[in-house]
Amino acid sequence: MLLSADASHHDDMVRQLIRIGFDRVxxxxxxxxxxxxxxxxxxxxxxxxxxxxxxxxxxxxxxxxVIDVRQRNEFTEGHITGALNNELGExxxxxxxxxxxxxxxxxxxxxxxxxxxGSILQRDxxxxxxxxxxxxxxxxxxxxxxxxxxxx
Length: 152
Hints:
single chain, 152 residues, alpha/beta, Oxidized Rhodanese, domain 1, 2 domains, 5-stranded parallel sheet, 7 helices, 7 strands, 35% helix, globular
């Protein structure tokens, strides 16, 4: 189910989801999120973290596990040091391999995939999830924060 503020975006949203491995969109919420809220239905919010705060946390002994949900080729070109690559389209299949006791931070290139990943993790019953709320890995690298290339 997709939510959109403007029905004219539906086709583009479906195309983007297909590109990242979600090819079974069953419909759109009529009236969008405002109709949902007006009906008194529950809304969950995903916690956000900025790049500067993530960098500070990254340097601590209790650093969160960073899950980079970009495609493998994007990841190998450059990623946050120590990040785990778990492509968004495969995340659901790998939930059991992710620790429940550690805080998790999802990141991508621009925010859409990371937000979707955060939602998937929350739906799995995890309450220690944050999503990078800025441009993601490219901005992290541009700021000179710890990054590396290659598979791991």
